[in-house]
Request: fold
Amino acid sequence: MYANFFGLKQAPFSIAPDPRYLFMSERHREALAHLLYGTGGGGGFVLLTGEIGAGKTTVCRCFLEQIPKRCNVAYIFNPKLTVTELLKSVCDEFRIPCPEPGPDASPPTVKDYLDPINEFLLKTHAVGQNNILIIDEAQHLSADVLEQLRLLTNLETNERKLLQIILIGQPELRGLLARPELEQLAQRVIARFHLEALSEEETSLYIRHRLAVAGMTAARPFDRKARRRVHELARGVPRRINLLCDRALLGAYAAGRTTVDAAMVTQAAREVFGAAVPVPEAAGWRRHRRAAAWVAGMFAVGLVGGTAAWWGAHAARVRLAAASADAGPAVSSAASAPATAASATPGAASAGAAMGSALAAAIASAAPAPEVAGSAVLLKPPMRDEDQAWRQLAALWKFDPADGSPCASATSASASPPQVQCFKGVGSLELLRQIGRPGILTLRDDRGQPSYALLMGLSSLGVRLRLDGGVTQTIPPAVLAERWRGEFSMFWRAPEGYRGALSQGQSGPAVEALARQLARVRGEPVPARASEFGPGLKAKVVAFQVGQGLQPDGVAGPTTFMQLNRALGVDEPRLPADAAAG
Reply:
């Protein structure tokens, strides 16, 4: 309903487990890697658990898209079954002919199902095929069904078990497998992973990611406070984030507004979640309360300091009186006593003297004041001209874009270095750290107007940026997040014949170059010729992407080739390795 209003091609926050919208946080990448490991881990059980709505099923759908062709998959998503019903479901999913009822119309027994399943596993193994059984919502499995699953994995060769079982479920599944009677099954779990909720930063990136996949290219509708409120109310659970953001966008559309603020998110939560929604504390009251606490603290410090000063002055006067009694009237001076008292305890006197001005400043700061905009945090101005940023980046690549568009100059036939192309994407600092090359960050002010900074370093001290006039500045990631929405641009060197992302079924010089690069990275013999992007090459691409922290979609695009060039030591500009920048 609201997609066209916000410039979207489709609704971005559907709760359907669409793998295209899979946000590959560090946790999700690890979860997918565990499932992929299970396809070649020698059989047994793989366990994936997570809270309701954490993204387990979506990760599984993404996993299913990447399974090699010579792998048979049975997927059971309604595990509230008896042992016999489960075995019948396995036969149905693997397309194994089910046994017929006996002459006396008696139902098939467990053995009647086990025999054809075992025969199927042996035959498929003989022709080089693997078999995977995936059970979703596995926390609902009964103990006797789990024991039967364990018995299914008993069929094995000297090298591997013939059936790989993946159990996906809520956290209760871990407790279920910890029961003493299921210890034998627990010992056959070769990999397990628990999918945690997203952090506040990941929630913000998740929202941006889904909007970008849905086609949004303009300024994002959720401001910083709205994203923070979404994380607070959704608790970092992707499904709750989807429900909340979808209703908030609908509310903004109904009100004719192109932006969503924290108040609209709170109202959307009341409509979606039903229960009472905590109201965030007003910023003005928070400032009053902090200032009041600070005033009370300073009053206590001042009280102690004043008392110390009084005792210091009193002691000085006693000492002075004693000295004057011995030295006579010439030593006694009315003006010297306070001066001596002040110098006797300089720290206490300073605290007492500073107390009045400190209290005045605290009281003044207690009044509500307009918050400083995020754009004011960057003390040095960024670049306003995007071409200027591209030209500075081109200098690092040692080519001159002349007077035309830097991107057009880079991709021209006469460009040097050859095959250099421009890439624009949306991602996180972690992705940029993985890519490890200089790039252009698009910063946006509160009105969504763009400016540009050159990424020159990522270190433990912060993010090093080159700003307008060639000035460099290092800022904390949290400060950058106030103005950076994940948009970045960079140059990259494409293989010869590259015309776009490479996927299964394509052929040509770029596919051949991809096969050669992957072979060199894996330490395998370089193929003389790869006629087509087949399942084998896709599996290698996926494995490489998982190892590099990229989205493992099996498609070789710019970021995949960037990482291949990096792994092979191609001479390209690099970010310094955790260098201190300033």
